[in-house]
Amino acid sequence: MRDIRLFFMTVISCSRMRGAKVAVVGAGVVGLSTAVCIAETLPGCSVTLMADKFSPRTTSDGAAGILCTEQYPDIPLERQRCWFRDTFDHLLAIAQSRHAPEAGVLLSSGVQIFREPPANKRPYWWDIVFGFRFLSERELRRFPEHTFGQAFTTIKCECSSYLPWLQHKFTKAGGKLVEKKVSSLEELSPDYHVIVNCSGLGSKELVGDVGLVPVRGQVLKVDAPWLKNFVRQEEGKSYIYPGSSYVTVGGTRQEGDWRLAVDPGDTEAILERCTRLEPSLCRGRMLGQWVGLRPSRRNPRVERAGQRLGGGRGAHVVHNYGHGGYGVSLAWGTAVDATGLVRSCLQEMHLQAKL
């Protein structure tokens, strides 16, 4: 529904955007989604995507990529539902298209299990995924240490394929790629009307966000082709996500930990926990290991900055970062929101220019 609304608003406002220059900073899944959404929704704009790292060197490239998220404490629930639903619908359309293999987007069925029943047995996205139901007592016998579970079909988005695919869509829509480290948003202000900050953990320095912290994640890539269904322990403490070419096994959630090296102790602990959930994993062949730092804050920041740069005379700034471990699950939804904020900035500038 929001995509239809965006289309009609685009038709009305497209002429007002002619010649407008927009910079998007950050080329992870949030930044690329935002750049594509702006370039396709506001075709009169010139959109430049800037980052010091592009795929395959981003944090998003190693993401497990299963659409499943937790609830943020201070954001209206309906807004969170919109973010998840827009992302789910966007990726579902890809999964059902001829582009699915190259984009790395596929449907995935499995279970989420809990040692004790959660306070809310139905997460806010229960009616957005497919076939959501509670596990029966017989099904729970597979997991002796757990007393409650949910089964559903969601989407797996393999970012090692999805990010290059998005990047191609972006350039096809007329977008420009610039590999550079942005040290301050002010340095971009003279050349752009709007700057969209999607720099993830980089926002800690770029905009001085003291509430942004790294949450270290370590995952294993395992060859175990007989596994077809995912198993996710409560809040993603442990997970087994079969994909198109390997199984992602995780993980860790180590807040405030900046280490990027693989920790053998974490590897051992992950394997020990996950083989309890799926004993046949012990027969799998290790293909590789990966570590990334999730950009975590109390709530994602998706908003316009309070004032323009340069004492109110420079570029407008829109922020879209801080999704933690749920960037893939919410990226397209927050990109739609950010695109709306960019449009409002440009319309405001258009009105001021007429005065």
Task: Write up what this structure looks like.
The protein has 355 residues and is of the alpha/beta class. 33% of the residues lie in helices and 27% in strands. Strands 1, 2, 3, 4, 5, 6, 7, 8, 9, 10, 11, 12, 13 and 14 form a 14-stranded mixed β-sheet that branches. A hairpin with a 5-residue loop joins β9 (230-233) and β10.
Tell me the strand percentage band: 25-35%
Average pLDDT across residues? 94
- How do the helices and strands follow one another from N- to C-terminus? HEHEHHEEHEHEEHEEEEEHEHEH
Helix/strand-derived category reads: alpha/beta
- Count of distinct strands: 14
Write a concise keyword list for the protein shown above.
10 helices; about 25% strand; 14-stranded mixed sheet; about 350 residues; alpha/beta
Topology of this protein?
Blueprint: H1 2-13, E1 21-25, H2 29-41, E2 46-51, H3 77-95, H4 100-103, E3 105-114, E4 130-134, H5 137-140, E5 148-157, H6 159-172, E6 176-179, E7 194-197, H7 203-206, E8 213-223, E9 230-233, E10 239-242, E11 247-250, E12 254-255, H8 264-277, E13 285-304, H9 309-312, E14 316-323, H10 327-354
Parallel strand pairs: 1-2, 1-7, 2-6, 3-9, 7-14
Antiparallel strand pairs: 3-5, 4-5, 8-11, 8-12, 8-13, 9-10, 10-11, 13-14
